[in-house]
Design goal:
Blueprint (H helix, E strand, L loop, with lengths): L6 H15 L6 H8 L3 H4 L6 H24 L4 H18 L1 H9 L6 H19 L5 H23 L9 H18 L1
Length: 185
């Protein structure tokens, strides 16, 4: 008995595919083969690979926001920043392909993707709010935190850390520097 093909099953399978083989593995022929259907059957549920990438990007951002939110609940200041940072890095390690799709699929002009990014930013803003900064400083701190975590995690995923460096120690030091900088603001 065949499991019916649905948009949800296609997206779930595509998410597994990109996490296990990387975002370049996302081609409809491979997706159809993984689902054991003809490629033409996919078009009843998705509008091509671009649509699948869009939906994966949306899924990844929602998942990241929820992961960050769950990690930072009930914590404040440095504890919240460390929890957020660890959750961010953990998400990228668990879902490397999904996370990579977020960089490959631009948010503009898609309102749903802009809103999904807004969910992630909202979690960061809530963590930063614990420091009691001015609106301008809070915005700058949130942007810096997001940029640093994203940059480190992307570099780490691409094995872009210096040879011989301990990535765990380096990440911890990065978060310590960010916390010190935010507190100093």
């Amino acid at each position: 008995m065949r499991i019916p093909v649905t948009r949800e099953r296609i997206i779930a399978t595509a998410a597994e595919l990109v996490d296990s083989r990387g975002p370049d593995a996302l081609v409809l022929s491979q997706l159809a083969e993984t689902l054991d259907v003809r490629q033409s059957a996919l078009y009843k549920h998705v509008d091509g690979v671009d649509d699948v990438q869009h939906r994966l990007s949306l899924l990844a951002r929602h998942m990241l926001a929820e992961h960050l939110r769950a990690a930072a609940v009930g914590l404040a200041k440095d504890d919240a920043v460390f929890a957020l940072a660890d959750a961010w890095r953990g998400f990228v390690r668990t879902h490397p392909g999904l996370y990579a799709i977020t960089d490959r699929y631009p948010t503009a002009p898609h309102a749903d993707l802009v809103a999904a990014v807004g969910e992630v930013v909202d979690v960061i803003n809530r963590v930063i709010a614990g420091y009691g900064l001015s609106d301008d400083d809070s915005e700058q701190a949130a942007w810096s935190l997001r940029s640093a975590l994203h940059g480190f995690c992307v570099l780490e995923a691409q094995e872009g850390h210096p040879a011989g460096a301990d990535p765990d120690r380096t990440y911890r030091r990065l978060v310590e520097l960010l916390c010190a900088g935010i507190a100093r603001m």
